[in-house]
Amino acid sequence: MYLDPQSLAPSSSPATPAPRPLRVGMIGIGTVGAGTFRVLARNQAEIAARAGRGIEVVVVCARNLARAVDVVGTGVALTNDPLLVATHPDVDVVVEVAGGSGPARDWVLAALRAGRHVVTANKALLAEHGTEIFAAARQHGVVVAYEAAVAGSIPIIKALREGLTANRIEWLAGIINGTTNFILSRMADAGLGFAEALAQAQALGYAEADPTFDIEGIDAAHKLTLLAALAHGVPLQLHKVHVEGITQLQAIDMVCAERLGYRIKLLGVARRRDDALAQGLELRVHPALLPATHLMAQVNGSMNAVMVQGDAAGSTLYCGAGAGSEQTASAVIADLVDVARLAGGAPTQHGVHAQPIAAAPAPAVLPMAATRTRYYLRVPVADAAQGCAQVTQALADCGVPLQTLLQHHEGPGGVGDLRAGQRHVVVLTQVALEADVDRALARVAGAAGVHGAAVRLRVELLA
Ligand code: HSE
């Protein structure tokens, strides 16, 4: 039967009044807060059309009120009391973009208890106190949305919660810290030193207030904690993430990696294991070698990328700016639009429940020794031939299969703080158990002719 589209047009109905705008209170008007305010103002009409109603900032909490006026003008109420915003009677949703995890916990809990929805970019807060915060949100029938907390502009929370919801996630791996990716890219491509590259990242507003969180891998661990909970249905368990940052990386390893056809990235990995050796979840943040031809290896500067392997979808890859003012604001506002669309309904019916899903039974986090992957090893030696023999023997004795072996000989000047003329044995292994690699390295450390500590980095093929 032919269906006349005209017949589907609604018959003339009385005009319904426009729904009232969603009223926002903001705690923090720094890099992300200012970006949120600007984008909300600039794209007001588009955002209102998509949300079904306007989104209006009615009150802002700032430490520096004079500077806040420069950002928001005089039409918005200003305060320096975060709790006043959290419980303000004219506010429907509190945007927390102040950062930090101690006081922010109190503000967010106060907002939830007062029946306000919360949108936050605060990964540290949720990784540390998320269990309590999501429980409070459930109890009070409101939403805690946190797209901006992970990977900046990339809608990875939405992808995991909605787009990939049919899948059993086998693994996910991400470049989820913009600062370290910026530093590694500048070191590899522009020959910058670590300190200079970090200073540039700070000047661009990518780094955390305490950049230790970035360079020591803690920020990436916060984000991985949130991703793993969503992807694998495990509790938020920051303390179980194995964390290594980039401060111990040496320039020579970036050179050797490149010579072998790899790039070094700080990676967060949450991989389900269900094999003869282990059942559980690998949960780790560390520098890793990626094949230079892999798309993830080409994600440079402050860009982030997350690759997800689902049993039905296969591999999907999400890439975008991982930090920055309007880039992160884009995710904050996406959450605000989701909240605006709730229109008084129950959060779970509208798919905006941002709580990690508790699957039963959740896989336990595996010890690092149970990790199975490929490895890059570099051993400084006195004599190349003798060194090669010692390293290959130790690997064979410990059941670590070898893939590639090369000798690296520093030219005059050396690389970084290594002395000129130093020789190294550089090895790529096939897939091996980390415990076996540790045993092999312990043997090598005791061998005559080994000149200094061996370096061990993990290699991820992401295939
Ligand atoms: N310091 C963080 C980063 C900001 O560099 O990725 C965004 O979370």
Write the layout of secondary structure elements.
Layout: H1 5-8, E1 22-27, H2 31-42, H3 44-51, E2 55-61, H4 65-72, E3 77-79, H5 82-86, E4 93-96, H6 103-113, E5 117-120, H7 123-140, E6 144-145, H8 156-163, E7 169-175, H9 178-190, H10 194-203, H11 212-215, H12 218-232, E8 242-243, H13 251-259, E9 262-274, E10 279-291, E11 303-310, E12 314-321, H14 325-342, E13 372-381, H15 384-397, E14 402-409, E15 423-429, E16 432-433, H16 434-445, E17 455-459
Parallel strand pairs: 1-2, 1-4, 2-3, 4-5, 5-6, 8-10, 10-17
Antiparallel strand pairs: 7-9, 7-11, 9-10, 11-12, 13-15, 13-16, 13-17, 14-15
Bound molecules: L-homoserine (HSE).
L-homoserine (HSE) is lined by residues 152, 177-179, 206-208, 214, 219, 322-323.
- Show unreliable segments: 414-418
Number of domains: 3
Structural class by sheet pairing and helices: alpha/beta
CATH class group of the largest domain: Alpha Beta
Radius of gyration: 25 Å
Say what oligomer this is. single chain
What's the CATH architecture of the largest domain? Answer: 2-Layer Sandwich
- Return the average pLDDT rounded to an integer: 92
What percentage of residues falls in helices of 4 or more residues?
25-40%
Task: Tell me about the largest β-sheet.
Answer: 11 strands, mixed
Spatial separation of the terminal alpha carbons: 49 Å
- Per the principal axes of the C-alpha atoms, what is the gross shape? elongated
Bound molecule kinds, no repeats = L-homoserine
As a percent range, the share of strand residues is: 15-25%
Number of helices: 16
Q: Do you know the CATH topology of the largest domain?
A: Dihydrodipicolinate Reductase, domain 2
Annotation, overall tally of beta strands: 17
CATH homologous superfamily heading of the largest domain: Dihydrodipicolinate Reductase, domain 2
